[in-house]
Amino acid sequence: MHVYLNGKMVPESEAMVSIDDRGFLFADGVYEVIHVYHKKLFEWELHLARLQRSLAAIQLPAMDGSELARVAEQLILELGPEQSEASLYIEATRGTHRRAHGFPPPGSTPPTVLMWVRPVNPIPKETVGQGVPMITVPDDRWAKVWIKTIGLLPNVLAKEKAHQSGAFDAIFVRDGMVTEATSANIFMAKDGMLYTAPATNYILSGITRHVVLELAQARNISVNLTPFSVDQLLMADEVFLTGTLTEVLPIASIDGHPVKNPSGPMARQLLQDLHERAGLQP
Ligand code: PDD
Prior knowledge:
Bound molecules: N-(5'-phosphopyridoxyl)-D-alanine
CATH class of the largest domain: Alpha Beta
CATH topology of the largest domain: D-amino Acid Aminotransferase, Chain A, domain 2
CATH architecture of the largest domain: Alpha-Beta Barrel
Distance between the termini: 31 Å
Strand content: 25-35%
Shape: globular
Mean pLDDT: 97
Helix content: 25-40%
Number of strands: 15
Number of domains: 2
Order of helices and strands: EEHEEHHEEHEHEEEEHEHEEEH
């Protein structure tokens, strides 16, 4: 398959980035991941807007959205007929320059831009039906988590800790309050009401989170966006993750404590509504 790198479509095996790339040296870049359902980008405009916000936050120039969409469509054309689900990855770094912390002089390097489309396997139905085990970890990330930066080492370490403890993923906890998971947001349902952390600088404001909140409102489910603790999470009726590739994924246990209803009706309904919005057959 081809990938897009700095204005060209190149075979994946020939796509090379310099050792002086600032993404490689400093994680000085931002990214997006978009779900492709049946060759169509899901919620493209929302992802593009978030990409532009992330670029602006690190003082990189805005990107041409119609050009990105055109490249994405070209990459999607390479998917086989059987590959109904895929992900589009977009990354932009501050380009290539001899290592120095300060920005390269203006005009000395264009950003490095990488895009690919790769097939993804949907999460097995049994996993969705049973829910997944989670652990909690201290949220020791920086205070600008809202920027979708490629600097993801705390997320990587937390995910690995989860795997080493036999869990699916980790829930970040900051000052006693639940923020999010390593690459997904977190919701709980209690007495018919839906809760998720507010979109402050301490979470990545997920596109799936946004869509799920809209879907909940369309079903007249009340939503509460105030911070909640792990104790509250443990008393919830349902707990679930939302994310581009995670979709709506029920949680079965947290630090070994079972969740009351690991495949609850709220998560099931919202997943069905999400799939409908993505144009999937029930
Ligand atoms: N991650 N929180 C974090 C820290 C994330 O990295 C992500 C997405 C989300 C969910 O956002 P969205 O619904 O827009 O996907 C929340 C992507 C999928 C990734 O890093 O692969």
